Amino acid sequence: MFILYGTRRKIKIDRSLGNRVCPNCHHTVEQSLAREKAAATIFFIPVFGWTTKRMIYCPCCGTAKMLSRSEYKEMKKA
User: Fold this and answer.
1) How is residue 34 annotated by DSSP?
2) Which residues face 28 on adjacent strands?
3) CB neighbours of residue 32 within 10 Å
4) Which one, of 39, 44, 30, lies nearest residue 11 by Cα?
5) pTM for the complete prediction?
6) What CA–CA distance (Å, rounded) separates 51 from 78?
7) What is the dihedral of CA 64, 67, 73, 75, to 10 degrees?
8) Mind listing the domains of the chain with CATH numbers?
9) Which of 7, 3, 10 minimizes the C-alpha distance to 39?
10) What is the maximum span of the chain, computed from C-alpha positions, in angstroms?
11) Which residues lie below 8 Å from residue 16, measured CB to CB, with a gap of 6+?
């Protein structure tokens, strides 16, 4: 008998921040408040998950500015 296990990472978009200028690609695009979620899986079924990173995400170039937990909560409320 064998057991398939592993991890999975996914970016979850929480809120749109409107049009902003990206510091990396210098395009004016709609940036988002996002978090990277990880999950441990058994037989491709998520068993438990956790948040690894909180960020402002640019969909144009894919870069992200990392945020602390308190900064993330403050931006999500506003």
Assistant:
1) E
2) 21
3) 20
4) 39
5) 0.74
6) 21
7) -60
8) 14-77 (3.10.20)
9) 7
10) 54
11) 30, 31, 32, 33
